[in-house]
């Protein structure tokens, strides 16, 4: 990230010299998904009493937007991959991975979830677009179709696992997500309690 040029941005006004009552703007470069060249973005900073104040406002804006974060950089500059392509790669890796290989029955169940529900709904989306909003829409469709709470939770977990399987050369997730279960409406599955009868 330190080698990226323009991430700190610059500030300007359309008139000279600097006026504390004139509109102030900030300008910086951003990476866009699937675009090899960065694009210039201009934002309004309102009125700023000095150039240093304007620079501080722009730094705050860039920080809030996450322009300089490693996660944003990786997600926006990673090769564009569909959820379907990543799911195929993920499923193929499960039985042969060195650490905790997955049993064939589990792989079969996850493949069934992908074929039955996940891929028809999310398969053609780019990985970067599979976020809380996309998962919420998916959960609403499953709920409307009458799927049980346990099935919805299991199918949603497959979505999360596929997304988490996309990593860079250092093993870091390219599309890290902080899933908001309240927002996406993930059902709560109550565990059944088994009561053993005392034999006399």
Poorly predicted regions: 1-6, 194-200
Largest sheet, in brief, is: 3 strands, antiparallel
Considering DSSP H and I runs of 4 or more, what fraction of the residues is helical? 40-55%
Order of helices and strands: EEEHHHHHHH
Task: Name the average pLDDT.
Answer: 84
Question: Brief description of this entry?
Answer:
With 200 residues, the chain is mostly helical. 43% of the residues lie in helices and 10% in strands.
Q: Which features characterize this protein?
A:
disordered N terminus, mainly alpha, 3 strands, 3-stranded antiparallel β-sheet, disordered C terminus
Describe, in plain words, how this protein is organized in 3D.
Helix 5 (132-144) packs antiparallel against helix 6 (149-164). The relative contact order is 0.10. This protein has helices spanning 51-65, 70-77, 83-93, 104-122, 132-144, 149-164, 181-184, and strands at 10-12, 23-30, 39-47. It has a three-stranded antiparallel beta sheet with strand order 1-2-3, with helices on one face. It is elongated and about 70 Å long. The protein has 200 residues and is mostly helical. Residues 1-6 and 194-200 have low confidence and may be disordered. It is built from seven helices and three strands.
């Amino acid at each position: 990230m330190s080698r990226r040029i323009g991430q700190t941005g610059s500030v300007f006004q359309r008139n000279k010299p600097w006026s504390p009552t004139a509109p102030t703007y900030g300008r910086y470069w951003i990476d866009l998904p699937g675009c090899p060249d960065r694009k210039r973005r201009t934002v309004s900073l309102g009125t700023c009493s000095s150039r240093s104040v304007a620079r501080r406002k722009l730094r705050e804006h860039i920080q809030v937007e996450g322009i300089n974060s490693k996660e944003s950089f990786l997600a926006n500059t990673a090769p564009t991959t569909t959820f379907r392509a990543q799911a195929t790669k993920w499923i193929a890796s499960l039985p042969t991975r060195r650490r905790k290989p997955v049993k064939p029955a589990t792989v079969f169940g996850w493949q069934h979830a992908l074929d039955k529900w996940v891929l028809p709904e999310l398969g053609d989306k780019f990985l970067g677009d599979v976020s809380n909003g996309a998962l919420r829409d998916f959960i609403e469709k499953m709920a409307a179709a009458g799927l049980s709470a346990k099935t919805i939770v299991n199918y949603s977990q497959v979505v999360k696992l596929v997304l988490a399987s996309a990593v860079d050369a250092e093993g870091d997730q390219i599309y890290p997500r902080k899933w908001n279960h309240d927002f996406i409406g993930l059902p709560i599955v109550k565990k059944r309690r088994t009561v053993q009868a005392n034999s006399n």
